[in-house]
Structures are given as structure tokens and as C-alpha cells.
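Continuing the batch. This is chain 6 of the set; chains 1 through 5 are on the previous pages. Same settings as before, nothing changed between runs. Recording input and output for traceability.
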Amino acid sequence: MITPALPLSSERSPSADESITAWALAARGGDSAAVDHFVRALHRDVIRYVAHLCADPQAVDDLAQDTFLRALGSLHRFEGRSSARVWLLAIARRAVADSFRYSAVRPRPADLPDWELAVELAQPRGLPGFDDGVALLELMDGLPQERREAFVLTQLLGLPYAEAAALSDCPVGTVRSRVARARATLMALLAEAEEPATPAPPPSPALAAA
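Output for chain 6:
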């Protein structure tokens, strides 16, 4: 049974982001252990984010790998002025945008999307009322891209609204509006899914006697 409830925003603690940023700065200085900590800490966030942005679920792994390759190649320019998580997600966003542009120039035959793989990679864990988050992912797929991105950033990845706004290059109020509309749409869809099927009316006496 799908329960009509949505997860509340669970922003990460400032200390967690500070640790990730510290690892990024140490990795910039050549600390291989810090590189490993940095990648492990943000790998799932990148997977979730690109899975909800890209149109091809089979491309999620490649886009995540591209994101980290770009980030590790650009660490020498990271100065810690923003959190490393926001910096990395901005790189992920550009990687997805570049993949769209590349696909537009060099289209390839469309494959049937491997939704089981996409769900395995991107599903939000531990959400009340969902079987491993699959139902939420399916409903979110129907949201407009801007609202889906705002919802993913703030409600699933836990970014503060100000950071989500900076990443999306729009005002904070716009992000709040997009999240509110996304939640309203998802709540309506969940409520609709909860409605019991209307039972068929009993046959009329005339038909029963025939």
C-alpha cells in the first residue's frame, strides 16, 4: 500500500559538509586517502542527482564517472569558497547538460530504458510508505524537470534552499515555489493511488433472471 506522505527535508549537518570540503581541499594537495573519502561521501548524491536529470537511465554510471573525473581534474581550482558538495553537483549538472548537447549532435538508436537499474542506482532509501522508494521515483518522473530538480536537491539530497538556488541559478523563492508545487503534485498523485477501485454495480434483477 502506498501511503500519502512525503519525506521531509533532511538537510545535512554543517559539520558533514565541512568534513567533505576539508577532504576536497586535502585531495587538492595530493592526499590520496582524502580523495577516497571525498568520492565515497558524495558518490550516492551524484548518482541520485544525475539519475533524475538525465533522460537515459543507462547513462547514469557514465555520467557519474564523468562528473568525478572532471572534479578530480579541477581540484586544483577548488578554493573552498562554497561547499565541496555544491561544487561537485554543479559539475554533475554541466556533465548532464553536455551529454544532452552531444546527443543532439550525434543521436544514437534509442534503447529500452533499464528501469530496474535506474531504480537500484537512484532510489531514496528509508522513505516511509514506499517499497524502497520505487513508487516515489515513478511519480517524480512525471514532474517538470525544474520542479523535479528542486525537489531532488532539497528533499532527497538535503541541500539548503539557498545552495539549491545557487546551483540552479535562480532565486531562493523560485526554488521554494518549485518544491511546493512538486510536493503538491506528488501528494495528489499519492492520494489518487490510495483511492480504492470503484466496485462494479450488481446486475439488475431483470438481467439476473434472464
